[in-house]
Amino acid sequence: MNPQELLQAISFAFMIVFPNLALMGLGFYLKKTDKINRNFIDTASNMVFHFGLPCLLFFSVIKSEVTIGEQLPLIMAGLVTTFGLFFGAEIYAKLFVKNVRDKGVFVQGVFRSNMAIISLSVATNAYGAVGTSVGAVYMGIMTILYNMLSVMTLSRTSQNTDFKSQSIDVIKKIFKNPLIIALVCAFIYKAVGLPMPAKPIAKTGELLANIALPLALICAGATLDIKSMFGLSGVSMQASIGRVIVAPIMAVLVGVLCDLPPVQFGVLFLMVASPAAAASYVMAKAMGGNAILAANILAFTTVFSMIGMAVGMAILRILGWV
User: Which of 260, 321, 311 is nearest to 12 (CA)?
Assistant: First the structure.
């Protein structure tokens, strides 16, 4: 590879990650200087989750030529990667994580990534509308799987509710999840062959969609806790290594074995290599896991996974795989 191609690969990786880091940095600055408060962050995050992201996913799918059939190799690769990380982390936790309240949190920190905000926005930066559409379909299916596996691994620490009740609660949340509802509606809309919505409706949806990822990234940056990030215990560091290093390597190995085309390979890597999901902290706290451990993993991986994604995409670009 000549120096020009190397420079292009590094530039590509920098350009897809820098906007996310810049927006997160802006959010951190705004919170640090008291220009926004916790109430704003909660309200904005709620608006993104219930309106912005659903509109983004819905219109991305109905406007694209992407179908689930075309994405079966990517979806199968995602299932293999997710189950590989889950069972690998379970075995590791059984052997090396002593505290029962840490086991499920460790496992969740390794296998569960932040697809809806970080991965989707980087995929959009990398591949434009195609990246958004491909990522949306992948995310819709994996979100259901992530929730089910999280209940399984965290149920051992739940003191107030049995596994059956927790499972029913998660199933209810899946059916009420605005992102999943938006994706299912989009697939039905396309399958029926309905025309594009009227221009005023489409324009309104697009305006809502346009604010989703920037506002979500600003809120993510505003919630960063630097003290928690450096308050790492041995277990949180091990989980963070699993998320930042092991998970991306697993995605690359599966992508190579499945011989994925470049866009699907890139989306798989970005979906798997992103930081720990924000929902992992909420679920750990609700089910009696070590919430402090979950917060530490979330804070550390939010910063360092972004660096890993940039380095990984640069290497994959040099190899010609993405």
Answer: 311
Q: Quote the radius of gyration of the chain (alpha carbons, Å).
A: 19
CB contact at 8 A, 127 and 263: yes
The Cα angle at residue 247 between residues 305 and 71, in degrees rounded to 5: 105
pTM of the model: 0.84
* Backbone CA torsion sign across 283, 288, 292, 297: negative
Residue at token pair 């995050």: 45
Nearest to 313 by CA among 248, 217, 250: 248
User: Got the DSSP string for 16-69?
Assistant: HHHHHHHHHHHHHHHHHTTSS-HHHHHHHHHHIIIIIHHHHHHHHHHHS---TG
Read off the tokens for 290: 């070590």
Residue type at position 133: S
The answer to whether the CB of 209 falls within 8 A of the CB of 83 is: no
d(CA 322, CA 320): 6
The per-residue pLDDT for range 240-267, each reduced to its tens digit, is 999 999 999 999 999 999 999 999 999 9
b/e for 43-70, b at 16 or more Cβ within 10 A?
Answer: ebbebbbebbbbbbbbbbbbbbebeeee
Dist. CA 187–CA 193, nearest whole Å: 10
Report the candidate in 280, 293, 251 with the shortest Cα–Cα distance to residue 112.
280
Q: Are 219 and 27 in contact (CB under 8 A)?
A: yes
At residue 259, what is the residue type? D
Alpha-carbon distance values, 275 to 117, 174, 190 (Å): 10, 22, 32
- Between the two ends of the chain, the Cα-to-Cα distance in Å is 16
Separation between Cα atoms, residue 268 and residue 246, nearest integer Å:
14
Burial grade of 40 (CB within 10 A; 0-12, 13-18, 19 or more)? middle
Type of residue numbered 58: F
User: pLDDT tens, 201-212?
Assistant: 889 998 999 998
Residue 287 DSSP code: T
